[in-house]
């Protein structure tokens, strides 16, 4: 799988996750920007302007591939964190009731995110 394909698969999982609850459209967009400034060599940055994760910007990178790698790694880390949060809900019936899902539904969903 190429880096771009991997990022696409991860963003699909992220989209599934943010759709569990109310989200805004911007939670579903990730960007890599190429910047030219002051006559210097261009650099790349990965960005996310969501509500769930707030604002995230990668360090400046010398290549699009490096910015893509940082973006991929950010998505992987955030999905791991989301999975941990969801797993913690499995034994909390009150939270499951509020969330509107059974433990079985949530366990199936967690497997889809892995």
Main attributes?
3-stranded antiparallel sheet
Q: How is the main sheet built?
A: 3 strands, antiparallel
Strand order, main sheet: write it out.
1-2-3
Poorly predicted ranges: none
What share of the residues lie within helices? 40-55%
Number of helices: 4
Please trace the helix and strand order, writing H or E for each element: HEEEHHH
What is the general shape? Answer: elongated
The overall number of domains is 1
* SSE class: alpha+beta
Radius of gyration: 17 Å
Q: Termini separation (Å)?
A: 16 Å
Strand content: 5-15%
- Nearest-integer average pLDDT: 90
Number of strands: 3
Task: Describe the fold and architecture.
With 114 residues, this protein is an alpha+beta fold. The protein has one domain (3-113). It is built from four helices and three strands; from the N terminus they run H-E-E-E-H-H-H. It has a three-stranded antiparallel β-sheet, covered by helices on one side. The protein is elongated and about 60 Å long. The model has no long low-confidence stretch (mean pLDDT 90).
Write the SSE topology.
Blueprint: H1 3-18, E1 30-35, E2 43-49, E3 55-57, H2 64-89, H3 93-99, H4 103-113
Offer a quick outline of the entry.
The protein has four helices and three strands.
């Amino acid at each position: 799988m190429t880096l771009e394909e991997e990022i696409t698969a991860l963003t699909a999982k992220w989209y599934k996750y943010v759709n569990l609850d109310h989200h805004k459209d911007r939670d579903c967009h990730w960007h890599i920007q190429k910047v030219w400034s002051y006559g210097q060599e261009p650099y790349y940055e990965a960005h996310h302007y969501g509500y769930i994760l707030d604002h995230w910007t990668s360090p400046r990178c010398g290549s699009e591939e490096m910015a893509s790698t940082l973006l991929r790694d950010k998505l992987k880390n955030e999905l791991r964190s989301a999975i941990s949060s969801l797993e913690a809900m499995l034994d909390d019936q009150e939270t499951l009731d509020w969330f509107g899902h059974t433990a079985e539904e949530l366990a199936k969903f967690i497997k889809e995110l892995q």
